[in-house]
């Protein structure tokens, strides 16, 4: 797409070595910028911005409803005045005050995180970010919940058959009713991915296929404030999980070897990688955690 060289020797056959870097897109990312950190062990083609307390992804009649429905191609630049910028206090937020300073909570709440995919990675990553204080999300996925998803995805039996993005929105708002979730029920493509995540400073890649991962990396790595991707989480046991960072531009997590085409996706390793993605996002927003930092 952009003439990128491939990083095949690092277990990421699709990952570009040379990429647009920085806010102006004029700083190349090279192999020398990579560092490795080891860890020990619902309306089709529409976006729905849901307000707390709403139970459905359908837009109620009337302009006064705290809902906005947009074509995915339009982005989300027009946020209803009824929602405003300030997010209200919640039980979760009051609990987080025991662990995080007011400044840290404000930083977490100010960032809009985009999540491409609402399956095993995306749903669990969103859940962990929500529990950590992130309260603004844009989530895109075209799929519906199937019984085979329940072994590893943040969904429940009574949600089978529902749109993943709509169900995930409800589950996140069950954690914190003040969370704002913009959902896009669509298949992400080169034609729509920029518009879908236009308002996101951080984008998390949580797609299944290699082509989708490559598309997201080429679209956002070096253009967004931060990009997180994953590869290798199949089976059980298996290789150690690792985090590979590219300066402060991107992080890549996983075992970089296992493949769900030959091994089953199981909850422990899938959620492990989702947790590493969420941790990379939090680390980017708050900076490294130090003793007595609060």
What does this protein structure show overall?
26% of the residues lie in helices and 19% in strands. It has helices at 91-96, 102-110, 120-132, 164-175, 193-196, 210-220, 267-286, and strands spanning 6-7, 12-16, 34-38, 46-50, 68-71, 112-116, 136-140, 180-184, 202-205, 226-230, 242-246, 250-254. The protein has a 10-stranded mixed β-sheet with strand order 3-11-12-10-9-6-7-8-4-5, with helices on both faces. β6, α3 (120-132) and β7 (136-140) form a beta-alpha-beta unit. α3 (120-132) packs parallel to α4 (164-175) and α3 (120-132) packs across α7 (267-286). The longest helix has 20 residues, at 267-286.
Structural class given helices, strands, pairing?
Answer: alpha/beta
Strand order of the largest sheet: 3-11-12-10-9-6-7-8-4-5
Helix count equals 7
**Strand count, sense and closure of the main sheet?**
10 strands, mixed
Low-pLDDT stretches are 1-11, 16-32, 38-84
Question: What overall form do the CA principal axes indicate?
Answer: globular
User: How far is it from the N-terminal to the C-terminal residue, by CA?
Assistant: 44 Å
- The Cα radius of gyration reads 18 Å
Report helical residue fraction: 25-40%
Give the strand tally. 12
Proportion of strand residues: 15-25%
Secondary-structure element sequence? EEEEEHHEHEHEHEHEEEH
| Mean of pLDDT | 79
